[in-house]
């Protein structure tokens, strides 16, 4: 009898152990705890990922407490008892800059963080009557200099794919930056058909008299670098004051010439969704409640792109591949037949999502490759399952074998509930995954590396 009890107990222990380790073994990968910070991926330079430590709720709370706990006595800054002092930079007026300087680090092949040296400078550009300033960093990375924003609150810098160039833009124009140099130069033209920005705004105001809509001219909106960084495609409405809507233009950085790519004919709106290669772009046409996708070459020749399902919504464009969803809640990956018929596609992967896709805003440098691995062989996406909308599952798909990996949460020793917050590809096998959890009423984000296809002890 005792032997039966012992045997039954042993079976229970084995089963429980299997239940604990099976989710980790099912992923066939390795988790590495990276940092108790929100590590935001900002650059991929020669396959080296660079991140910075973004502020999160707990950091902002500490800053708020530190500022409210300071006072000046006899010309000396004194910290109230119980308030932890913090280091600040000071602006020209002597006021403390309460946003700490960013710490740039690279993620090594061993999944560790290593410091990256930086040189921070400030650029100025006009925004209406106001002169705006932005902090930019020249980063030295393995003997190469790349550009990155040095201000966590500034999202205006759009870097080229190799990060050796960058642009700022607003409704009045484009400013170009070069890695290793300080300052920004305006590269967009100040007039269109002899008319300035203010001239066109006044024309638009007259046209809109009596309506509630604001009169806004976007000179260079939604700029996207070509894969080789030689050209920029952008949306504008400076040529659409009479018709309404917007058009798409192409700017050549080498020659400084710009050309109409997609002309507005009847008040429709156009927006580029990304480059397929250095010759072709995909753009969306919005008119009277309908939406269509087209492929255009750099000469302006276009052809409609047929995607399956009702109301397809493109998520990512990369290397002749497109990831999109539709009203049937399918996620699809197709490859465009650029060689024979640019308007046709071959389906690579399609699957219904048993939940709601969770697509967060990507970093500017990877806006069109958000879901694809660097070589395009894999796809990753987050969704909230119908069974529980408060959690997020991460799916990784090998587009060659169609094998799928489902991740539900990171391994945790303290058993505090964790939820996937966001992710980025580091290389073809590793993902940077941000995980959120609530501790003492505050949302804390930690950063992890998940290595695909690596079996071993979890490093946490």
TrEMBL record:
Lineage: superkingdom: Bacteria
Q: Which Gene3D superfamilies match?
A: TolB, C-terminal domain
Q: Which SUPFAM superfamilies match?
A: DPP6 N-terminal domain-like (SSF82171)
Note the coiled coil stretches, chain numbering: none
User: Which chain regions cross the lipid bilayer?
Assistant: none
Stated family? Belongs to the TolB family.
Q: What is this protein called?
A: Periplasmic component of the Tol biopolymer transport system
